[in-house]
Design goal:
The complex is a heterodimer of chains A (294) and B (321).
Chain A: H1 2-35, H2 42-58, H3 64-87, H4 95-117, E1 133-135, E2 138-140, H5 142-164, H6 166-176, H7 178-183, H8 188-214, H9 221-234, H10 241-260, H11 266-280
Antiparallel strand pairs in A: 1-2
Helix pairs in contact in A: 1-5, 1-6, 1-8, 1-9, 1-10, 2-3, 2-4, 2-8, 2-9, 3-8, 5-6, 5-8, 6-8, 9-10, 9-11, 10-11
Chain B: H1 2-17, H2 19-22, H3 26-50, H4 58-74, H5 80-102, H6 107-127, H7 129-132, E1 138-139, E2 145-146, E3 149-150, H8 154-176, H9 179-189, H10 191-196, H11 201-227, E4 229-230, H12 237-250, H13 255-271, H14 279-293, H15 298-320
Antiparallel strand pairs in B: 1-4, 2-3
Helix pairs in contact in B: 1-8, 3-8, 3-11, 3-12, 3-13, 4-5, 4-6, 4-11, 5-11, 8-11, 9-11, 12-13, 12-14
Classes of the chains: A mainly alpha (294), B mainly alpha (321).
Chain lengths: 294, 321
Protein backbone atom coordinates (compact mmCIF):
# COMPACT_ATOMS: atom_id res chain seq x y z
CA UNK A 1 0.00 0.00 0.00
CA UNK A 2 2.88 2.27 0.89
CA UNK A 3 4.47 1.64 -2.49
CA UNK A 4 1.19 2.06 -4.32
CA UNK A 5 0.66 5.48 -2.73
CA UNK A 6 4.17 6.47 -3.66
CA UNK A 7 3.64 5.38 -7.24
CA UNK A 8 0.38 7.35 -7.45
CA UNK A 9 2.26 10.38 -6.16
CA UNK A 10 5.02 9.97 -8.74
CA UNK A 11 2.48 9.54 -11.52
CA UNK A 12 0.65 12.73 -10.51
CA UNK A 13 3.79 14.88 -10.42
CA UNK A 14 4.97 13.13 -13.59
CA UNK A 15 1.78 14.02 -15.41
CA UNK A 16 2.15 17.65 -14.29
CA UNK A 17 5.71 18.01 -15.59
CA UNK A 18 4.65 15.90 -18.57
CA UNK A 19 2.02 18.51 -19.42
CA UNK A 20 4.74 21.13 -19.47
CA UNK A 21 6.86 18.96 -21.78
CA UNK A 22 3.80 18.56 -23.98
CA UNK A 23 3.35 22.34 -24.23
CA UNK A 24 7.02 22.85 -25.05
CA UNK A 25 6.83 20.00 -27.56
CA UNK A 26 3.87 21.72 -29.13
CA UNK A 27 5.82 24.96 -29.44
CA UNK A 28 8.65 23.06 -31.18
CA UNK A 29 6.18 21.46 -33.55
CA UNK A 30 4.52 24.77 -34.48
CA UNK A 31 7.81 26.20 -35.77
CA UNK A 32 8.96 22.93 -37.29
CA UNK A 33 5.78 22.47 -39.25
CA UNK A 34 5.80 25.84 -40.93
CA UNK A 35 9.58 26.17 -41.43
CA UNK A 36 11.31 22.81 -41.02
CA UNK A 37 13.47 24.40 -38.32
CA UNK A 38 14.13 22.84 -34.94
CA UNK A 39 14.57 25.94 -32.84
CA UNK A 40 17.33 25.26 -30.34
CA UNK A 41 16.38 28.48 -28.55
CA UNK A 42 12.93 27.13 -27.71
CA UNK A 43 13.92 26.35 -24.14
CA UNK A 44 14.96 29.98 -23.66
CA UNK A 45 11.40 31.12 -24.42
CA UNK A 46 10.26 28.84 -21.60
CA UNK A 47 12.92 30.25 -19.28
CA UNK A 48 11.96 33.83 -20.27
CA UNK A 49 8.32 33.15 -19.37
CA UNK A 50 9.24 32.25 -15.80
CA UNK A 51 12.00 34.80 -15.26
CA UNK A 52 10.04 37.72 -16.72
CA UNK A 53 6.97 36.90 -14.61
CA UNK A 54 9.09 36.96 -11.47
CA UNK A 55 10.65 40.24 -12.56
CA UNK A 56 7.27 41.86 -13.27
CA UNK A 57 5.91 40.60 -9.98
CA UNK A 58 8.81 41.46 -7.68
CA UNK A 59 10.36 44.51 -9.29
CA UNK A 60 7.50 46.13 -11.18
CA UNK A 61 5.01 45.08 -8.45
CA UNK A 62 2.36 44.10 -10.94
CA UNK A 63 -0.49 41.81 -9.88
CA UNK A 64 0.08 38.16 -10.84
CA UNK A 65 -2.20 38.07 -13.86
CA UNK A 66 -0.73 41.26 -15.30
CA UNK A 67 2.77 39.99 -14.61
CA UNK A 68 2.03 36.80 -16.54
CA UNK A 69 0.56 38.74 -19.45
CA UNK A 70 3.58 41.04 -19.56
CA UNK A 71 5.97 38.09 -19.48
CA UNK A 72 4.18 36.24 -22.27
CA UNK A 73 3.88 39.42 -24.34
CA UNK A 74 7.56 40.33 -23.97
CA UNK A 75 8.65 36.78 -24.83
CA UNK A 76 6.42 36.87 -27.88
CA UNK A 77 8.06 40.09 -29.02
CA UNK A 78 11.47 38.49 -28.49
CA UNK A 79 10.34 35.57 -30.65
CA UNK A 80 9.28 38.04 -33.32
CA UNK A 81 12.54 39.98 -33.21
CA UNK A 82 14.51 36.73 -33.27
CA UNK A 83 12.75 35.63 -36.46
CA UNK A 84 13.29 39.03 -38.08
CA UNK A 85 16.96 39.41 -37.16
CA UNK A 86 18.34 35.90 -37.23
CA UNK A 87 16.11 33.69 -39.37
CA UNK A 88 14.76 35.94 -42.11
CA UNK A 89 18.12 37.34 -43.37
CA UNK A 90 19.12 33.83 -44.39
CA UNK A 91 18.21 32.87 -47.90
CA UNK A 92 18.54 29.19 -48.78
CA UNK A 93 19.85 28.31 -45.34
CA UNK A 94 21.03 24.75 -44.76
CA UNK A 95 19.80 22.91 -41.65
CA UNK A 96 23.36 23.15 -40.34
CA UNK A 97 23.34 26.94 -40.50
CA UNK A 98 19.94 27.10 -38.81
CA UNK A 99 21.14 24.83 -36.02
CA UNK A 100 24.18 27.03 -35.44
CA UNK A 101 22.13 30.23 -35.54
CA UNK A 102 19.45 29.02 -33.15
CA UNK A 103 22.13 27.71 -30.77
CA UNK A 104 23.75 31.14 -31.00
CA UNK A 105 20.45 32.81 -30.18
CA UNK A 106 19.90 30.43 -27.31
CA UNK A 107 23.18 31.20 -25.54
CA UNK A 108 22.81 34.89 -26.37
CA UNK A 109 19.41 35.07 -24.65
CA UNK A 110 20.71 33.03 -21.72
CA UNK A 111 23.72 35.31 -21.36
CA UNK A 112 21.63 38.48 -21.47
CA UNK A 113 19.24 37.17 -18.82
CA UNK A 114 22.21 36.28 -16.63
CA UNK A 115 23.62 39.77 -17.18
CA UNK A 116 20.34 41.49 -16.33
CA UNK A 117 19.02 39.37 -13.46
CA UNK A 118 21.99 37.40 -12.19
CA UNK A 119 22.41 33.71 -11.64
CA UNK A 120 20.14 33.20 -8.63
CA UNK A 121 17.43 30.59 -8.65
CA UNK A 122 14.10 32.22 -7.96
CA UNK A 123 10.65 30.90 -7.16
CA UNK A 124 7.30 32.20 -8.30
CA UNK A 125 4.53 31.95 -5.67
CA UNK A 126 1.91 29.32 -6.49
CA UNK A 127 -1.14 30.82 -8.21
CA UNK A 128 -3.66 29.76 -5.60
CA UNK A 129 -1.95 28.67 -2.42
CA UNK A 130 -0.11 25.48 -1.57
CA UNK A 131 -2.73 23.60 0.45
CA UNK A 132 -2.48 20.03 -0.79
CA UNK A 133 -5.58 18.21 -1.97
CA UNK A 134 -5.74 14.51 -1.12
CA UNK A 135 -6.52 12.21 -4.04
CA UNK A 136 -6.39 8.40 -3.76
CA UNK A 137 -3.78 8.45 -1.03
CA UNK A 138 -1.56 10.95 -2.86
CA UNK A 139 -1.42 14.70 -2.62
CA UNK A 140 -2.22 17.06 -5.44
CA UNK A 141 -1.14 20.69 -5.34
CA UNK A 142 -3.42 23.46 -6.60
CA UNK A 143 -0.60 24.35 -9.01
CA UNK A 144 -0.94 20.90 -10.59
CA UNK A 145 -4.56 21.72 -11.39
CA UNK A 146 -3.48 25.04 -12.94
CA UNK A 147 -0.97 23.20 -15.09
CA UNK A 148 -3.52 20.62 -16.29
CA UNK A 149 -6.10 23.34 -16.92
CA UNK A 150 -3.82 25.68 -18.87
CA UNK A 151 -2.40 22.78 -20.90
CA UNK A 152 -5.85 21.58 -21.92
CA UNK A 153 -6.90 25.13 -22.83
CA UNK A 154 -3.79 25.76 -24.92
CA UNK A 155 -4.19 22.47 -26.77
CA UNK A 156 -7.85 23.16 -27.51
CA UNK A 157 -6.94 26.70 -28.54
CA UNK A 158 -4.24 25.47 -30.94
CA UNK A 159 -6.57 22.90 -32.40
CA UNK A 160 -9.27 25.47 -33.06
CA UNK A 161 -6.74 27.90 -34.50
CA UNK A 162 -5.12 25.42 -36.87
CA UNK A 163 -8.35 23.80 -38.03
CA UNK A 164 -10.89 26.61 -38.09
CA UNK A 165 -9.20 29.95 -38.82
CA UNK A 166 -7.84 31.24 -42.10
CA UNK A 167 -4.40 31.98 -40.62
CA UNK A 168 -4.21 28.56 -39.00
CA UNK A 169 -5.16 26.80 -42.19
CA UNK A 170 -2.68 28.90 -44.13
CA UNK A 171 0.09 27.86 -41.71
CA UNK A 172 -0.83 24.23 -42.17
CA UNK A 173 -0.76 24.70 -45.91
CA UNK A 174 2.82 25.98 -45.58
CA UNK A 175 3.79 22.90 -43.64
CA UNK A 176 2.47 20.61 -46.38
CA UNK A 177 4.05 22.42 -49.27
CA UNK A 178 5.53 25.90 -49.05
CA UNK A 179 5.68 26.48 -52.76
CA UNK A 180 2.10 25.44 -53.37
CA UNK A 181 1.01 27.60 -50.45
CA UNK A 182 2.83 30.53 -51.99
CA UNK A 183 1.16 29.89 -55.35
CA UNK A 184 -2.33 30.12 -53.88
CA UNK A 185 -1.47 33.50 -52.40
CA UNK A 186 -0.32 32.68 -48.89
CA UNK A 187 2.51 34.87 -47.69
CA UNK A 188 4.91 32.17 -46.47
CA UNK A 189 7.21 34.71 -44.83
CA UNK A 190 4.39 36.05 -42.72
CA UNK A 191 3.31 32.55 -41.72
CA UNK A 192 6.87 31.78 -40.60
CA UNK A 193 6.80 34.93 -38.48
CA UNK A 194 3.41 33.89 -37.05
CA UNK A 195 4.74 30.47 -36.15
CA UNK A 196 7.60 32.02 -34.18
CA UNK A 197 5.20 34.36 -32.40
CA UNK A 198 2.72 31.62 -31.43
CA UNK A 199 5.50 29.25 -30.49
CA UNK A 200 7.21 31.81 -28.25
CA UNK A 201 3.89 32.56 -26.54
CA UNK A 202 3.13 28.88 -25.88
CA UNK A 203 6.66 28.28 -24.65
CA UNK A 204 6.52 31.29 -22.33
CA UNK A 205 3.19 30.17 -20.92
CA UNK A 206 4.66 26.75 -20.17
CA UNK A 207 7.52 28.48 -18.39
CA UNK A 208 5.13 30.57 -16.30
CA UNK A 209 2.99 27.71 -15.01
CA UNK A 210 5.93 25.44 -14.16
CA UNK A 211 7.89 28.18 -12.34
CA UNK A 212 6.06 27.83 -8.98
CA UNK A 213 6.83 24.10 -8.87
CA UNK A 214 10.43 23.87 -9.99
CA UNK A 215 11.91 27.35 -9.44
CA UNK A 216 13.55 29.11 -12.32
CA UNK A 217 16.89 30.60 -13.30
CA UNK A 218 18.73 31.75 -16.41
CA UNK A 219 19.87 28.22 -17.22
CA UNK A 220 16.71 26.11 -16.90
CA UNK A 221 15.91 26.50 -20.58
CA UNK A 222 18.34 23.89 -21.90
CA UNK A 223 16.87 20.95 -20.03
CA UNK A 224 13.24 21.99 -20.44
CA UNK A 225 13.78 22.63 -24.13
CA UNK A 226 15.42 19.27 -24.71
CA UNK A 227 12.69 17.41 -22.90
CA UNK A 228 10.02 19.29 -24.83
CA UNK A 229 11.85 18.30 -27.99
CA UNK A 230 11.83 14.70 -26.79
CA UNK A 231 8.04 14.91 -26.34
CA UNK A 232 7.66 16.36 -29.82
CA UNK A 233 9.80 13.58 -31.31
CA UNK A 234 7.71 10.94 -29.54
CA UNK A 235 4.63 12.51 -31.06
CA UNK A 236 6.22 12.60 -34.51
CA UNK A 237 6.63 16.40 -34.62
CA UNK A 238 2.89 16.91 -35.04
CA UNK A 239 1.01 19.61 -33.20
CA UNK A 240 -1.72 17.23 -32.15
CA UNK A 241 -2.41 14.63 -29.52
CA UNK A 242 0.73 12.62 -30.29
CA UNK A 243 2.95 15.31 -28.79
CA UNK A 244 0.69 15.61 -25.74
CA UNK A 245 0.84 11.86 -25.18
CA UNK A 246 4.60 11.95 -25.73
CA UNK A 247 4.98 14.63 -23.08
CA UNK A 248 2.81 12.80 -20.57
CA UNK A 249 4.61 9.49 -21.12
CA UNK A 250 8.01 11.19 -20.79
CA UNK A 251 7.01 13.06 -17.63
CA UNK A 252 5.60 9.95 -15.98
CA UNK A 253 8.55 7.72 -16.87
CA UNK A 254 10.98 10.36 -15.68
CA UNK A 255 9.17 10.87 -12.40
CA UNK A 256 8.87 7.13 -11.75
CA UNK A 257 12.52 6.60 -12.68
CA UNK A 258 13.66 9.42 -10.42
CA UNK A 259 11.51 8.25 -7.53
CA UNK A 260 12.08 4.52 -7.72
CA UNK A 261 15.59 4.24 -9.16
CA UNK A 262 17.73 7.33 -8.61
CA UNK A 263 16.99 11.04 -8.60
CA UNK A 264 20.50 11.98 -9.75
CA UNK A 265 19.90 10.25 -13.06
CA UNK A 266 16.50 11.92 -13.63
CA UNK A 267 17.70 13.94 -16.61
CA UNK A 268 19.69 11.03 -17.98
CA UNK A 269 16.47 8.96 -18.11
CA UNK A 270 14.83 11.54 -20.35
CA UNK A 271 17.79 11.61 -22.72
CA UNK A 272 18.03 7.86 -22.76
CA UNK A 273 14.40 7.76 -23.88
CA UNK A 274 15.16 10.47 -26.46
CA UNK A 275 18.03 8.42 -27.92
CA UNK A 276 15.98 5.23 -27.95
CA UNK A 277 13.16 6.95 -29.83
CA UNK A 278 15.57 8.56 -32.29
CA UNK A 279 17.29 5.23 -32.95
CA UNK A 280 14.25 3.00 -33.14
CA UNK A 281 11.31 5.14 -34.20
CA UNK A 282 12.52 8.55 -35.41
CA UNK A 283 9.16 9.10 -37.08
CA UNK A 284 7.43 9.11 -33.68
CA UNK A 285 5.61 6.52 -31.63
CA UNK A 286 2.27 6.80 -33.32
CA UNK A 287 3.10 7.31 -36.97
CA UNK A 288 3.92 5.05 -39.86
CA UNK A 289 7.40 5.44 -41.34
CA UNK A 290 8.04 7.56 -44.38
CA UNK A 291 10.60 6.86 -47.05
CA UNK A 292 13.36 9.35 -47.58
CA UNK A 293 12.73 11.73 -50.43
CA UNK A 294 15.64 12.87 -52.53
CA UNK B 1 50.80 19.69 -52.65
CA UNK B 2 54.29 21.07 -52.20
CA UNK B 3 53.00 24.44 -51.06
CA UNK B 4 50.83 22.62 -48.49
CA UNK B 5 53.91 20.98 -47.06
CA UNK B 6 55.79 24.28 -46.90
CA UNK B 7 52.82 25.91 -45.23
CA UNK B 8 52.79 23.20 -42.57
CA UNK B 9 56.56 23.43 -42.02
CA UNK B 10 56.34 27.19 -41.52
CA UNK B 11 53.44 26.72 -39.12
CA UNK B 12 55.31 24.02 -37.16
CA UNK B 13 58.41 26.22 -36.97
CA UNK B 14 56.40 29.14 -35.62
CA UNK B 15 54.77 26.88 -33.05
CA UNK B 16 58.08 25.39 -31.91
CA UNK B 17 59.89 28.75 -31.67
CA UNK B 18 56.99 30.59 -30.08
CA UNK B 19 57.95 29.96 -26.43
CA UNK B 20 61.45 31.46 -26.86
CA UNK B 21 60.42 35.13 -26.70
CA UNK B 22 57.77 34.30 -24.06
CA UNK B 23 60.31 32.62 -21.72
CA UNK B 24 57.77 30.39 -19.97
CA UNK B 25 55.46 33.14 -18.81
CA UNK B 26 51.70 33.31 -18.52
CA UNK B 27 51.16 33.37 -22.26
CA UNK B 28 52.90 30.00 -22.61
CA UNK B 29 50.32 28.58 -20.27
CA UNK B 30 47.47 29.95 -22.37
CA UNK B 31 49.08 28.58 -25.53
CA UNK B 32 49.02 25.07 -24.04
CA UNK B 33 45.23 25.29 -24.04
CA UNK B 34 45.26 26.75 -27.52
CA UNK B 35 47.02 23.54 -28.57
CA UNK B 36 44.47 21.31 -26.86
CA UNK B 37 41.50 23.29 -28.18
CA UNK B 38 42.99 23.35 -31.69
CA UNK B 39 42.91 19.57 -31.89
CA UNK B 40 39.43 19.37 -30.38
CA UNK B 41 38.16 21.95 -32.86
CA UNK B 42 39.96 20.15 -35.67
CA UNK B 43 38.26 16.88 -34.73
CA UNK B 44 34.86 18.56 -34.83
CA UNK B 45 35.74 20.29 -38.09
CA UNK B 46 36.62 17.00 -39.80
CA UNK B 47 33.16 15.82 -38.84
CA UNK B 48 31.16 19.01 -39.38
CA UNK B 49 33.14 21.08 -41.87
CA UNK B 50 34.22 18.23 -44.13
CA UNK B 51 31.58 15.51 -43.76
CA UNK B 52 28.73 17.89 -42.86
CA UNK B 53 27.71 15.92 -39.77
CA UNK B 54 27.13 17.99 -36.65
CA UNK B 55 28.06 16.85 -33.17
CA UNK B 56 27.07 18.74 -30.04
CA UNK B 57 28.61 16.10 -27.80
CA UNK B 58 32.31 16.55 -28.53
CA UNK B 59 32.96 17.60 -24.94
CA UNK B 60 31.86 14.13 -23.85
CA UNK B 61 34.74 12.41 -25.68
CA UNK B 62 37.19 14.98 -24.35
CA UNK B 63 35.80 14.37 -20.86
CA UNK B 64 35.90 10.59 -21.20
CA UNK B 65 39.58 10.86 -22.15
CA UNK B 66 40.32 13.13 -19.20
CA UNK B 67 38.37 11.11 -16.64
CA UNK B 68 39.58 7.79 -18.06
CA UNK B 69 43.20 8.80 -17.66
CA UNK B 70 42.55 10.60 -14.37
CA UNK B 71 40.83 7.66 -12.71
CA UNK B 72 43.16 4.98 -14.07
CA UNK B 73 46.31 6.81 -12.94
CA UNK B 74 45.08 7.93 -9.50
CA UNK B 75 42.86 5.11 -8.25
CA UNK B 76 44.57 2.24 -10.05
CA UNK B 77 48.10 3.60 -10.36
CA UNK B 78 48.37 2.68 -14.03
CA UNK B 79 51.24 4.03 -16.13
CA UNK B 80 49.92 7.33 -17.63
CA UNK B 81 51.08 6.59 -21.17
CA UNK B 82 49.52 3.13 -21.08
CA UNK B 83 46.33 4.64 -19.65
CA UNK B 84 46.26 7.26 -22.41
CA UNK B 85 46.44 4.65 -25.14
CA UNK B 86 43.95 2.32 -23.47
CA UNK B 87 41.46 5.11 -22.82
CA UNK B 88 41.74 6.53 -26.34
CA UNK B 89 41.14 3.09 -27.84
CA UNK B 90 38.14 2.52 -25.56
CA UNK B 91 36.65 5.94 -26.37
CA UNK B 92 37.16 5.29 -30.07
CA UNK B 93 35.41 1.91 -29.77
CA UNK B 94 32.57 3.59 -27.87
CA UNK B 95 32.23 6.22 -30.59
CA UNK B 96 32.36 3.54 -33.28
CA UNK B 97 29.59 1.58 -31.55
CA UNK B 98 27.24 4.52 -31.03
CA UNK B 99 28.26 6.01 -34.38
CA UNK B 100 26.15 3.61 -36.43
CA UNK B 101 22.77 4.43 -34.87
CA UNK B 102 23.63 8.11 -34.22
CA UNK B 103 24.93 8.97 -37.69
CA UNK B 104 21.98 7.36 -39.40
CA UNK B 105 20.19 10.51 -38.23
CA UNK B 106 20.45 13.76 -40.12
CA UNK B 107 20.40 17.48 -39.47
CA UNK B 108 18.44 18.52 -36.42
CA UNK B 109 17.89 14.98 -35.20
CA UNK B 110 21.63 14.28 -35.34
CA UNK B 111 22.30 17.46 -33.37
CA UNK B 112 19.81 16.45 -30.69
CA UNK B 113 21.10 12.87 -30.48
CA UNK B 114 24.74 13.93 -30.05
CA UNK B 115 23.62 16.53 -27.55
CA UNK B 116 21.79 13.76 -25.66
CA UNK B 117 24.92 11.60 -25.58
CA UNK B 118 26.91 14.57 -24.30
CA UNK B 119 24.43 15.34 -21.53
CA UNK B 120 24.19 11.69 -20.40
CA UNK B 121 27.99 11.37 -20.21
CA UNK B 122 28.20 14.62 -18.24
CA UNK B 123 25.54 13.44 -15.80
CA UNK B 124 27.54 10.25 -15.34
CA UNK B 125 30.66 12.31 -14.42
CA UNK B 126 28.60 14.11 -11.79
CA UNK B 127 26.83 11.09 -10.36
CA UNK B 128 29.53 8.40 -10.17
CA UNK B 129 31.02 10.12 -7.14
CA UNK B 130 33.04 7.10 -5.93
CA UNK B 131 34.94 6.98 -9.17
CA UNK B 132 35.12 10.57 -10.39
CA UNK B 133 34.71 12.60 -7.20
CA UNK B 134 31.44 13.98 -8.59
CA UNK B 135 30.84 17.72 -8.91
CA UNK B 136 33.78 18.61 -6.67
CA UNK B 137 36.20 17.07 -9.16
CA UNK B 138 39.14 14.72 -9.28
CA UNK B 139 42.49 15.95 -8.03
CA UNK B 140 46.02 14.65 -7.54
CA UNK B 141 46.46 13.46 -11.12
CA UNK B 142 50.21 12.95 -11.78
CA UNK B 143 52.15 14.80 -14.47
CA UNK B 144 53.35 12.82 -17.45
CA UNK B 145 57.00 11.83 -17.59
CA UNK B 146 59.49 10.17 -19.92
CA UNK B 147 62.34 8.56 -17.97
CA UNK B 148 63.65 11.26 -15.65
CA UNK B 149 61.95 14.08 -17.60
CA UNK B 150 58.72 15.11 -15.86
CA UNK B 151 56.35 17.47 -17.65
CA UNK B 152 55.77 19.76 -14.69
CA UNK B 153 56.35 23.27 -16.08
CA UNK B 154 54.41 25.32 -18.62
CA UNK B 155 57.26 25.21 -21.07
CA UNK B 156 57.58 21.43 -20.95
CA UNK B 157 53.82 20.98 -21.19
CA UNK B 158 53.73 23.38 -24.13
CA UNK B 159 56.04 21.15 -26.12
CA UNK B 160 54.28 18.00 -24.93
CA UNK B 161 50.87 19.23 -26.08
CA UNK B 162 52.03 20.86 -29.30
CA UNK B 163 54.05 17.84 -30.45
CA UNK B 164 50.84 15.82 -30.19
CA UNK B 165 48.86 18.64 -31.78
CA UNK B 166 51.27 19.03 -34.71
CA UNK B 167 51.14 15.30 -35.31
CA UNK B 168 47.37 15.34 -35.46
CA UNK B 169 47.28 18.46 -37.63
CA UNK B 170 49.64 16.80 -40.11
CA UNK B 171 47.49 13.67 -40.05
CA UNK B 172 44.37 15.72 -40.72
CA UNK B 173 46.02 17.65 -43.56
CA UNK B 174 46.98 14.40 -45.22
CA UNK B 175 43.58 12.92 -44.56
CA UNK B 176 41.55 15.72 -46.12
CA UNK B 177 43.67 15.61 -49.26
CA UNK B 178 43.25 11.87 -49.63
CA UNK B 179 40.58 9.71 -51.23
CA UNK B 180 38.94 9.55 -47.80
CA UNK B 181 38.78 13.34 -47.50
CA UNK B 182 37.28 13.71 -50.95
CA UNK B 183 34.70 11.10 -49.98
CA UNK B 184 33.80 13.13 -46.90
CA UNK B 185 33.29 16.28 -48.94
CA UNK B 186 31.14 14.33 -51.39
CA UNK B 187 28.96 13.24 -48.45
CA UNK B 188 28.71 16.86 -47.34
CA UNK B 189 27.40 17.99 -50.72
CA UNK B 190 24.96 15.13 -51.21
CA UNK B 191 24.98 11.86 -49.38
CA UNK B 192 22.81 10.16 -51.95
CA UNK B 193 25.02 11.30 -54.82
CA UNK B 194 28.11 10.18 -52.92
CA UNK B 195 26.65 6.74 -52.39
CA UNK B 196 25.69 6.46 -56.02
CA UNK B 197 29.33 7.24 -56.90
CA UNK B 198 30.46 4.33 -54.75
CA UNK B 199 31.35 6.15 -51.53
CA UNK B 200 30.47 4.02 -48.52
CA UNK B 201 28.84 6.98 -46.79
CA UNK B 202 27.48 5.16 -43.76
CA UNK B 203 30.85 3.65 -42.83
CA UNK B 204 32.86 6.78 -43.62
CA UNK B 205 30.70 8.96 -41.43
CA UNK B 206 31.22 6.57 -38.53
CA UNK B 207 34.96 6.43 -39.25
CA UNK B 208 35.42 10.17 -39.14
CA UNK B 209 33.23 10.35 -36.02
CA UNK B 210 35.47 7.71 -34.41
CA UNK B 211 38.60 9.58 -35.47
CA UNK B 212 37.35 12.82 -33.94
CA UNK B 213 36.47 10.99 -30.72
CA UNK B 214 39.93 9.41 -30.65
CA UNK B 215 41.64 12.79 -31.11
CA UNK B 216 39.45 14.34 -28.40
CA UNK B 217 40.19 11.52 -25.99
CA UNK B 218 43.96 11.88 -26.42
CA UNK B 219 43.63 15.61 -25.77
CA UNK B 220 41.49 14.81 -22.72
CA UNK B 221 44.26 12.63 -21.31
CA UNK B 222 46.85 15.34 -21.93
CA UNK B 223 44.54 17.95 -20.39
CA UNK B 224 44.11 15.99 -17.16
CA UNK B 225 47.86 15.44 -16.78
CA UNK B 226 48.62 19.10 -17.52
CA UNK B 227 45.93 20.40 -15.14
CA UNK B 228 46.31 17.61 -12.52
CA UNK B 229 42.71 18.49 -11.56
CA UNK B 230 39.48 18.00 -13.50
CA UNK B 231 35.80 18.63 -12.80
CA UNK B 232 32.63 17.85 -14.80
CA UNK B 233 32.01 21.53 -15.62
CA UNK B 234 34.85 21.56 -18.15
CA UNK B 235 33.15 18.87 -20.24
CA UNK B 236 29.55 20.05 -20.49
CA UNK B 237 27.27 21.31 -23.24
CA UNK B 238 28.78 24.77 -22.87
CA UNK B 239 32.18 23.50 -23.98
CA UNK B 240 30.69 21.64 -26.96
CA UNK B 241 29.11 24.92 -28.07
CA UNK B 242 32.44 26.71 -27.53
CA UNK B 243 34.14 24.23 -29.87
CA UNK B 244 31.39 24.79 -32.41
CA UNK B 245 31.93 28.56 -32.14
CA UNK B 246 35.67 28.08 -32.72
CA UNK B 247 35.24 26.35 -36.06
CA UNK B 248 32.42 28.63 -37.20
CA UNK B 249 34.67 31.64 -36.56
CA UNK B 250 37.82 30.05 -37.94
CA UNK B 251 36.25 28.41 -40.93
CA UNK B 252 34.18 25.30 -41.50
CA UNK B 253 36.05 22.81 -43.64
CA UNK B 254 39.49 24.25 -43.04
CA UNK B 255 42.26 22.69 -40.96
CA UNK B 256 44.02 25.98 -40.27
CA UNK B 257 40.63 27.63 -39.69
CA UNK B 258 40.10 25.31 -36.73
CA UNK B 259 43.41 26.39 -35.25
CA UNK B 260 42.70 30.07 -35.87
CA UNK B 261 39.30 29.73 -34.20
CA UNK B 262 40.79 27.89 -31.24
CA UNK B 263 43.49 30.55 -30.90
CA UNK B 264 41.00 33.43 -30.94
CA UNK B 265 38.44 31.88 -28.63
CA UNK B 266 41.03 30.69 -26.13
CA UNK B 267 42.90 34.00 -26.02
CA UNK B 268 39.80 36.22 -26.05
CA UNK B 269 38.38 35.29 -22.61
CA UNK B 270 41.90 35.51 -21.16
CA UNK B 271 42.25 39.06 -22.39
CA UNK B 272 38.76 40.07 -21.38
CA UNK B 273 38.91 38.75 -17.84
CA UNK B 274 36.06 41.01 -16.77
CA UNK B 275 33.72 39.20 -19.13
CA UNK B 276 34.17 35.84 -17.41
CA UNK B 277 30.68 34.34 -17.35
CA UNK B 278 29.31 36.69 -19.93
CA UNK B 279 31.47 35.24 -22.67
CA UNK B 280 28.41 33.32 -23.83
CA UNK B 281 26.86 36.59 -24.99
CA UNK B 282 29.87 37.15 -27.23
CA UNK B 283 29.75 33.54 -28.46
CA UNK B 284 26.06 33.85 -29.24
CA UNK B 285 26.53 37.04 -31.24
CA UNK B 286 29.52 35.57 -33.06
CA UNK B 287 27.65 32.38 -34.00
CA UNK B 288 24.72 34.33 -35.44
CA UNK B 289 26.60 37.09 -37.25
CA UNK B 290 29.32 34.83 -38.65
CA UNK B 291 26.78 32.34 -40.01
CA UNK B 292 24.73 35.07 -41.63
CA UNK B 293 27.47 37.31 -42.98
CA UNK B 294 30.60 35.18 -43.21
CA UNK B 295 29.65 31.51 -43.47
CA UNK B 296 33.16 30.61 -44.66
CA UNK B 297 34.74 31.87 -41.44
CA UNK B 298 37.80 34.09 -41.06
CA UNK B 299 40.08 31.92 -43.21
CA UNK B 300 37.87 32.86 -46.15
CA UNK B 301 36.97 36.31 -44.91
CA UNK B 302 40.49 37.67 -44.37
CA UNK B 303 41.83 36.76 -47.85
CA UNK B 304 38.61 38.10 -49.41
CA UNK B 305 39.08 41.37 -47.58
CA UNK B 306 42.75 41.41 -48.62
CA UNK B 307 41.84 40.83 -52.26
CA UNK B 308 39.36 43.64 -52.09
CA UNK B 309 42.00 46.03 -50.69
CA UNK B 310 44.93 45.09 -52.92
CA UNK B 311 43.44 45.86 -56.36
CA UNK B 312 42.19 49.14 -54.94
CA UNK B 313 45.80 50.03 -54.10
CA UNK B 314 47.01 49.20 -57.61
CA UNK B 315 44.46 51.59 -59.07
CA UNK B 316 45.68 54.44 -56.90
CA UNK B 317 49.32 53.70 -57.81
CA UNK B 318 48.37 53.80 -61.47
CA UNK B 319 46.66 57.13 -61.12
CA UNK B 320 49.73 58.55 -59.40
CA UNK B 321 51.94 57.68 -62.36
Amino acid sequence: MELLNQVTQFVISGLATGSIYALIGLSFAIIFNSTGIINFAQGEFVMLGGVLTIFSLNVLHLPLLAAILVAVAVTTVIGLVFERLAIRPLKNATPLMLIIITIGASILIRGLVMLLWGKDTQALPAFSGTDPISVAGATLLPQHLWIFGVTVLVIIGCRLFFNHTISGKAMRACSFNRRAANLVGISVGRMVLFSFVISAAVGALAGVIIAPLTMTAYDVGVMLGLKGFCAAIMGGMGSGLGTVLGGLILGTLESLGAGLISSGYKDAIAFFILLLILFIRPQGLFKKGETERV
Amino acid sequence: MKSDRIKFLVFALVVLLMPLPLSGGYLTNVLIFVGINSVLALGLNLLLGYAGQISLGQAAFFGLGAYGSGVLTTAYGLNPWLAMIAVAVCVALFAFAIGFPVLRLKGHYLAMATLGVGVIVNIAFNETVDLTGGPSGLSGIPNLSIGSLTFDSDLKNYYLVWVFALGMILLSLNLVNSRFGRGLRAIHDSEVAARVMGVNARLMKVQVFTLSAFMSAIMGSLYCHVMTFISPNSFGFHFSVELLTMIVIGGLGSVYGSILGALLLTMLPEMLRTFQDYDIIVYGLLLITMTIYLPGGLVEGIPALFRRLVPAKKVTEGSDA
